[in-house]
Amino acid sequence: MANDNLDSTALAGEDGIRWRIRGQDVKPENLTDDSSTPAPLSKEHFKKPSRPRLESRRSSAMSIAQIDQVLLDDNVDEDTYGVSEVRDGLFDAIFLKPLYYNVKNLLERSKATLPAQFDKSDPLAPEYFISRQFHQLSTLFVRIGTTRQGVRLLKTFLAFFIAYCLCLTPATRDWLGRYSYMIVVSVILNHPARTVGGQIEGTILTIVGTAIGLGWGTVGLLLSTSTLAARAGYGGILAMFLAFFMFALACIRAFFIRFYQAVLCAGIAIMFTTLAETNNKNVPWIKLRDYAIPWLLGQAISLLVNVLIVPDAGARALATALHQAFNTMQEAFNLLDQPGGIRQRRQLADAFVNLSEAYRDMRINITVSRFRPDDVEKLRNKMQAVIRALLSLQIKPRLLDSSPSRQSCVVIINTPDSDTVDEQTSRKNTNATAVGDSASDDIIRNVVEPLRSPTKDLLHSLKEGLRCCDAVLMDVSGYRKYLGPSDVVSSDLAAVRIRTKHAIATFDVVESTILDSNNNPVSSIHDPDVVKCLVFARRVRETIATVEALMDQVASMQRVPDWPRAYLPSYPVWKAIHRTNAQVRHDRGGVTAGYYHKTFLEIAGLLDKIKSLDYRPTSRIQDEQGQGGTPAKLNRPIMDPDADIAPASRKRKLRYKIWKALYRLQGLESRYAFKVCLVTSLLSVPSYLPDSHTWWNQYGAWWVVVVSWAVMHPQVGGNAQDLVTRSGVAILGATWSGIGYYVGGGSPYVMGVFSALYMAPMLYRYTISSHPRSGLVGCLSFTVISLNLQERGGGSSPAAFAAINGLAFFIGTAVPIVVNWVLWPFVARHELRHALSSMLFFMSVLYRNVVAKYVYFSDGKEPTPEDIQRSEILEGRLREGFVRIRQLLVLTRHEIRLRAPFDPLPYSGLADACERFFDHLIAVRRSALFYNPSYIRDDPLAAEQLLSYRRDAVAAILGNLYILAGALRSKRKVPLYMPSAAAARKKLLVKTAEVEENMSKKAPPDDIKKHKEWSDIYSFSYSESLTGCAVQLEELEKYTKLIVGAQGFDDEFQDEDEDADHEKHGR
């Protein structure tokens, strides 16, 4: 069967498979004794498979010859211990000789798969840290003066300085009250370095959050002083109110990041109300006014500065994302002639994710733009379709080069850069060249030469169309002058569309002529080089179809009136509460961990719809007629996620909801809430003790609780470097405040100069750099301490006041980090291992779904457009999952490991192999839409004969993925003997060839013409990808064993010398 064929060009060099396939000494006749149960394989079976005629229907001759090159090795060790387990009707696993590999070569190959950030020096090295600071300082002024970062910093600093100067003015400070510095704190927390829509939303959220916090605290104060008994235990009442409220706020902060600003301000307000100036006698209600008025004025200042000074309506970020995506796609075409390009593929994946993020940012906030949100959604879908098509493109075949000499076609679909450093590559390219040289001059003249020029015209039209779309969109957005492209690029989209249609028409004519020509021998369809060229040309044709659809969408957007319009938030509410704008994501910190957690939750939710389907296996033998004389129907598995499963009772639904709620309470959100309650409750104990009232209120020590709440993150707690940095800026802010007050003798002018010198870089760190939480601590430390010194007039000892306040900020910064180290710490390398385990399991579910839905049609019908759309959505989420895994891998560089440095190479290699497995699955799904082997699927006898072989081929892959995922999750060694997916596929191919030959005898003579249909061409790419899954499975096994180890029969008896010897020999 042609759908189970494969290409040895992509496989012959893969180390390991040819060393693993071993047979058992059984007679080949056993294969035909039982059509439903596959027999064990013999060595002769692998070496001498049956060879059907090339004229047979959908011949598998080329496929078997190619897989022989992969599985066969004449230098096989005869002393093997292969075992075949035969169980009728169940999975018959084949266990071959264990895989041995060279660890050094494997790790060397993995270096090419590391993210680009690993090209830099170790960030924890002291020499790198110092050099990096000097480098960033030298380029800081260039970035501020030439990019939008300077505008954002200017707006933030201007709003801060206005509020700070108001506090330095004695008359204004007296009117604002004792807590006048809250006007500056309000500006810092909702700074104007954001879009207008984000600023408006932030203003509303911060005001509402503050009101809720003050209201809840007021209720607690009233109850704590309502009666004599309450006054006696007022501390316990306030502590209970604070703990309950903080637990609720922490849960909201962790579950719904959209309300981050509201819950942050509500927490600060409740801490101020219940911890500042509290006693059991009376409540100084004036403090609520002194807090609320400055807070409102601070929000007003930020909003006015944001709206009046270089306002950003949100359209620029969208235009930037679109322009960068087009640049990435054009660069992908420039590298089409080069092998590898793994980082370019990763840039395409990043662009895919960034487009979705830019669209969401537009829909969740008020936006003023020339683009309508509905048009942007369609544009995003069209651009992502182009990116998907580009990711499926292989390297340009050499047979399509303009050189008149005959050249070989060395095309490897989805081949990583790491192959260039592998010694196996030379053997693979040698085999590929040998196969390519077999193409006859007649085939090149009749097939390749006519196809060369139209394909090049299509590629030129692709590049031209993308450049033109970029120019048109930047013209419409109004940012072409600032973002590009240059004026040299034409924006005449109509002319480009006409040229593209002509190129497509020419290609279609040539393609039809080649396929319908009688001058081509039937064997040409089985030549690997020719087929690859045809597949590549067809892929280009599919890609230009997506670009043509993109041009149509851009043309429709070009006709829309070009005046800007305001669009209110329109993102679905149940999704919007889990999303927020870009600046809040930045200020919140822990962007990578937050993205990783959310992305994998979404993937798990989508896959749950597949896993929870009611599966009923297809009957292998039709039942006899029922009592009514009607034949019994075959049981089909329900594969439609929208299909109604057996309704559950109300009691079962209630039990499930209770279980789901309790299970969710075990997640990181509840753990984070517990840590928040623990830290805030313990740090606030002195405020309830009579002996500590004086110094607690005198030095404003309640800020220790506020700082701890501000810097605690639901996922990331911080490492040793974060502890040093955040504590350092807290002490630096206190020190700088004391120095400024001492130098100027309390002069507001001197303090204003000192604030400008200190806060400009600190605000940059908070609002723009990748270290926002340390910047926030530095800003709050200087602001609170310096303005408290001004309000107190220095007091008896300004130095002591600054030192004690600095100590409070130091404790508030250090305690949350230490608590996060002790209680449920976030360790990037552990999360990376869990993420890879989850991704392997996701691959198993996706593989099962693709095979069932697109390959064997186990539900009895072809996939619908809705099925394809759902598959593309799921694949997009999984693509984003790989992006998050690479970001986690980068995070591991910033963690200090006491035992030994963390080795990222096997993890990077495993992630890359898993992504290539994913790419093969996508290729299978895309090719299966065009290649439909219904001749066997519709033949009950043929389907019955292949059922058990197909079962074993699929089950071997699923079983391996389950085992590897479980080993990674539990950090358990991988079994030494694993079911051989390659051997199971070999059995399927041999049996398929036998079935094909039997069916070809009954086929009409003119049926050979069907070899010239595109379904035959796609069978090559389709089966190549299926076999690629088996190859990548072996790569997954290698890297997983490198990470967690492999089991052995005598593990408990091995000593360190034996382990060292094994390591020396690369086992």
Automatic annotation (TrEMBL):
Question: Entry's InterPro entries?
Answer: ArAE_2_N, Brefeldin_A-sensitivity_4, IVT-Associated
Which GO CC terms are listed, alphabetically?
membrane
Swiss-Prot/TrEMBL keywords: Membrane, Transmembrane, Transmembrane helix
Subcellular location per UniProt equals: Membrane
- Residue ranges of the TM segments: 153-172, 178-197, 204-226, 232-252, 259-276, 291-310, 749-767, 802-823
Q: Which domain of life is it from?
A: Eukaryota
Coiled-coil region list: none
> Which residue intervals define the domain Putative ER transporter 6TM N-terminal in the entry?
153-224
Where is this chain compositionally biased, Basic and acidic residues type?
21-30
Question: What's this protein's name?
Answer: Putative ER transporter 6TM N-terminal domain-containing protein
